[in-house]
Design goal:
Blueprint: E1 2-4, E2 8-15, E3 18-27, E4 30-37, H1 42-55, H2 63-69, H3 78-81, H4 93-102, H5 108-122, E5 125-128, E6 131-134, H6 139-143, H7 147-152, H8 157-171, H9 177-181, H10 186-194, H11 201-211, H12 223-231, H13 241-250, H14 255-272
Antiparallel strand pairs: 1-2, 2-3, 3-4, 5-6
Helix pairs in contact: 4-8, 4-11, 10-11, 12-14
């Protein structure tokens, strides 16, 4: 779906049902976007620019967040070491929900394998410079998927049920990003998502964080997040919800970014180990 080289990202997207591959590279203090595959016109260029701004959360001023980080000694280092790091989103709400369901109660390595199998079997793709680029399957396709085919790819029976059910809700027009955005607040959006079978608070909050960029969304119960809170001695017990809630209250308005930076801190520890 995307690939990384030393100095750029290559990404495939569908815009108005047309396939595009574009690259993003740093150019001084700016990002340079090039359309590598697909028609290039002013409308398309604007659409891809908007996609990148949303995907990489480009327009957000992070300075207020860094000021919050600097108020706590345990996490103050993040303001400098992770400076400029932004939440890498999943603009497509359907993909975000499916990825959340895929990742429930399994390790990331296996989750990536399952997603890859799903994308390669049901998604569309194109070839650019001898490399295949894939698009996540549409809800129309997955709504009609054979459950036995998904189980053969090692999806559990429950995950098959949840993914097909979510696909059918999108296909019927009962669930969409537009529907959630039309609701008055975060609580209302969370409530709608959690009314869907297979979507608990972790799945709902993860999708709201990654797709709708809800600033106060915390994937409570996430094992990596809890581990990072312990490592930084912000909490002393993973089950102490009061300690956890009090900490995120201090980060009001930046809870999603705090969770994202805590995840990043674990990756950094792994890299240096």
């Amino acid at each position: 779906m995307h690939s990384l080289t030393v100095d750029k990202i290559l990404k495939a997207v569908l815009i108005r049902d047309v396939f595009f591959v574009f690259s993003i590279a740093q150019n001084g203090q700016a990002l340079q976007i090039k359309i590598l595959f697909g028609p290039c016109d002013l409308e398309t260029t604007a659409a891809i620019k908007d996609y990148v701004i949303d995907w990489l959360d480009i327009d957000r001023d992070l300075n207020p967040f860094y000021q919050l980080l600097n108020q706590r000694s345990e996490i103050a280092y993040m303001a400098e070491e992770f400076k400029g790091l932004r939440i890498i989103g999943i603009p497509d709400l359907f993909e975000a929900l499916c990825w959340s369901v895929i990742g429930q109660q399994i390790n990331l390595t296996f989750a990536y394998k399952l997603k890859r199998r799903l994308v390669e079997k049901y998604g569309c793709h194109t070839t650019f410079e001898n490399q295949q680029f894939h698009i996540f399957p549409s809800f129309e396709i997955l709504a009609e998927a054979d459950p036995d085919d998904l189980k053969a790819m090692q999806f559990s029976s429950k995950k098959v049920e949840y993914i097909i059910n979510i696909s059918k809700l999108f296909k019927a027009g009962k669930l969409s990003k537009e529907i959630l955005l039309s609701l008055p607040d975060y609580d209302a959006r969370q409530k709608v998502l959690m009314s869907v079978k297979g979507i608990g608070i972790w799945t709902a909050n993860y999708a709201l964080m990654k797709s709708l960029k809800e600033p106060s969304s915390v994937p409570y119960g996430d094992s990596g997040l809890l581990q990072a809170l312990l490592v930084h001695e912000i909490i002393t017990d993973k089950k102490d919800s009061l300690q956890i809630n009090n900490f995120f209250q201090e980060m009001r308005g930046w809870e999603s970014y705090m969770a994202f930076y805590l995840w990043r801190s674990l990756a950094k520890r792994s890299e240096s180990a």
